[in-house]
Each structure stands twice: as C-alpha cells, then as structure tokens.
Amino acid sequence: MRKQHIFIYFISILFTISVNSQEKIDTVKTKESYGIRIGLDISKPITSFLDNNTNGYEFVGDIRVFKNYYAAVELGFTDKTTIEDYLNFTTKGSYFKAGFNYNVYKNWKGMNNEIYIGLRYGLSFFNQTLNSYTPHVKGTYFTPNTLEPNTEFNDLTAQWVEIVFGMKVETFKNLYLGVSVSFNNMLNTKEPENFKNLYVPGFNRVFLNNAGVGFNYTLSYLIPIFKKEEK
After folding, report:
1. Which of 8, 88, 114, 224 has the most CB atoms around its CB within 10 Å?
2. Please, are residues 89 and 126 in contact by the beta-carbon 8 Å criterion?
C-alpha cells in the first residue's frame, strides 16, 4: 500500500507539472509582423507574352490592420482585343479596387500565412474601339460583309463589387506566393449607344447577368513596420 501511495503521489506531481507547463506554453506570446505588403500579379505579364491580343499589368498591396484583418488594394491597366464570331473590338483602360481580407486560417506560432475571404469595390475608366463586325444575315441569298468602322467610344466607366477567396503562403522570409478567385457583380456602367461593354478592365468578361469571374496569381513582399505580441 505504501508503494501504491508513493506511485499515486508521484503521478499527481507529474500531472501538475505537465498542466502548469502546458499553461505556460499556451500563454507564451510571440511577436508577429505588421507592415505593408506589395507585389505583382505574375499572370498578367505571362498572358501578355503568350497572347498578342492582350497586354496588361496589375499591382497589389495590403496592410495588416488587426490580427486577422487586412486592408487591400489592386491597381491595373488592360489593353485587350476581343475576337468573337461577329465582332472584333479593343478595350483599353485602367482600374482600381479597394477592400479588405479576413484571414480564417489559424497559424502556428511564428507563421503568417493566409486563407482568406475578402470584399472589393472596383472602379474602371476605359475606352472601347469597334474594329470590325459582321452583320448576322439569315438565309443563304446574301453573303455577309465584314464592316470595319474603327469607331472609338471614349470616357466609359464601370463600378462593381466582388467577393474574393484566396490564400497567401510565405515561401521565403517575407516573400509570399498567392492565388485568388473573385466573383464579380456589376453595379453600373456607362455604355455607348448601340454597343454593350462586353469586357471591362479589372472586371473581365461581362456575362448576360452582369456577373463576372476573375483570377490572380501574385508574388509579393512584406515590408515590416513593427511587431506586435499576439497570443
């Protein structure tokens, strides 16, 4: 019995030490970096190189405001010629998007990766040039002719909102690779007479229900400003 009492007492001491140690580990504070992260959508230069009808770039940036909240912006330019069955037109202009990301991923101590959901407001200023079009003629009695009016529509605008899902992973110290997909909804757009804005810089292809989809693949660098202790 004496040996059993000693064994139980010894186990209780070990359990107490283990609990106290775990509590100390759980309450250890680590310093996490707060700063400005700037980068580039690397898919845009690649697309421009592979496709002669597309030219553009996009800069991205975010700043950590709270533990899981980031203010985010994107700035870009697009010069794209769209070729369809009966239509050939060029869209050229710039865009700006601003909003926030909320990081739903719980990092281990010392990590700063993200799996996030975000919201953006987008604004674009652009021109459309109707290069050519082929009137759709029914029947076989008339041969449709391709017309080349080279008509330019200037001072067009568009506004939209988008929901963003994405992730950013720190591959090297302060260097991040990211990927995201956005689901866009057009709020309003200024269109010329007899021509619909089928493509908008920053929004991409405009579908019949005024919806759109976007993707981006980013390489960005974090410039630390200060560190804050987080539990």
Report:
1. 114
2. no
E-only strand ranges, 104-210 = 114-133, 151-172, 175-189, 199-200, 204-205
Residues 169 and 114: their CA atoms lie apart, in Å, by 7
What are the residues whose beta carbons fall under 8 Å from the beta carbon of 156, sequence distance 6 or more? 93, 125, 126, 127, 128, 189, 190, 191, 192, 197
The pLDDT of 69-73, averaged and rounded, is: 97
Looking at the structure of the chain, the number of domains it has is: 1
Report if residue 107 sits inside a domain.
yes
Structure tokens at 136: 């759709």
- Does some domain include residue 18? no
Indicate whether 24 pLDDT > 70.
no
Residue 108 is predicted with a pLDDT of 81
Q: β-strands 199-200, 204-205: how paired?
A: antiparallel
Question: Containing domain of residue 82, as a range?
Answer: 34-225
How far apart, in whole angstroms, are the C-alpha atoms of residue 23 and residue 3? 30
- 157 touches 203 (CB < 8 A): no
**Which of 80, 174, 176 shows the shortest CA–CA distance to 128?**
80
Which CATH number belongs to the domain containing residue 140 in this structure? 2.40.160.20
Quick check: is 114 in a domain?
Answer: yes
213 in a domain, yes or no?
yes
Taking the C-alpha atoms of residue 7 and residue 11, their distance in angstroms, rounded to an integer, is 6
Kindly report the CA angle at 80 between 124 and 160, in degrees rounded to 5? 25
In this predicted structure, the answer to whether residue 166 has a pLDDT above a threshold of 70 is: yes
Of 120, 118, 95, nearest to 189 (Cα)?
95
Name the pTM for this structure. Answer: 0.79
